[in-house]
Give the backbone structure.
Amino acid sequence: MKRIGVMTSGGDAPGMNAAVRAVVRSADYHGLEVFGIERGYKGMIEGAIHPLGPRDVSGIVGRGGTILHTARCLEFMQRPGREQAAAQLAKLGIEGLVVIGGDGSYHGAEKLHSEFGIHCIGMPGTIDNDIGGTDYTIGFDTAINTAMEAIDRIRDTAASHDRIFFIEVMGRSSGYVAMISGIAGGAEDILVPEKHTSVDDLIERLRNGHKRGKKSSIIVIAEGHESGGATAIAAQVAEQSEFKDNRVTVIGHLQRGGAPTAFDRVLASRMGVRAVEALLEGESGKMVGVSGQNMLLRPLAEAWGLRTLFDPGLLRVAHVLGV
Ligand code: ADP
Ligand code: F6P
């Protein structure tokens, strides 16, 4: 193998640039030529592919977003789109590919591998931390710290006005971001898709807190919670209880931006080095994951087959400490 491609795909995540840098620099170290593919599979189909050298990735280790841009691409879901994409890679002699993204992007990589024999290695890049085969995804640590900082700020105003705040955080169908940022921010309750919580239970808990002397409360809600999000649950609480004067904050895409934390930069760097080594070892259809201190190669199918869940013991920690 002499030439490889690197791309970012799906939702962006802080640390993706550190990942691109690591792939480019370690490939160069091993004497491989690297091509950056812009806007994920969309750019691959369009041929938006250009050489990337070690100097092209200078100064990006700490930059949020992705210099390669990212996109979602419906055309690639169909075989003719993938044929076009594979032809663009063949034209440039690109035999290996590192795909930085989520499980959707891995489905695409799996097809490039099985249909066209392109060697593909995945690197998990998403703030949701919902990918099987790895303890952590690139971007999660930054996102939970951003969410925690937002909770801290809202607590100031919540306490000043003796108010209840409902704060919605991202995570798609996973409650990982909510659980960790909620515990770190000292939330009174945390509503996640992994556990059923009724509005009645929530109101009961708010009442107990007030009986115990709480004048303000913060409820963190994962966007994927069955209630339909913070706005819906705040309205129900106002309608069914004495807690009428509540406020809602949806943190939204703030969680996707910003400089990556040291943890995400180092995770991305380690994964990038391992991804290039994997291609050189002739591996394909695998993802780099972290387990404890170790970098592992796991089948791509594990990424979407086994969802990473938070330790259920955290539910109890949140419950005990939020009283
Ligand atoms: P993520 O990688 O963050 O999970 P998406 O689910 O949006 O993001 O997937 C990113 C892109 O991967 C899609 O826009 C599409 O181009 C490609 N993709 C997703 N699923 C498949 C599939 N089953 N077959 C082929 N390509 C896919
Ligand atoms: O997967 C990352 C993520 O930020 C999810 O947490 C969220 O549900 C989704 O992407 C938002 O997607 P978009 O940027 O397309 O609105």
Remarks:
- The radius of gyration is 22 Å.
- The chain has eleven helices and eleven strands.
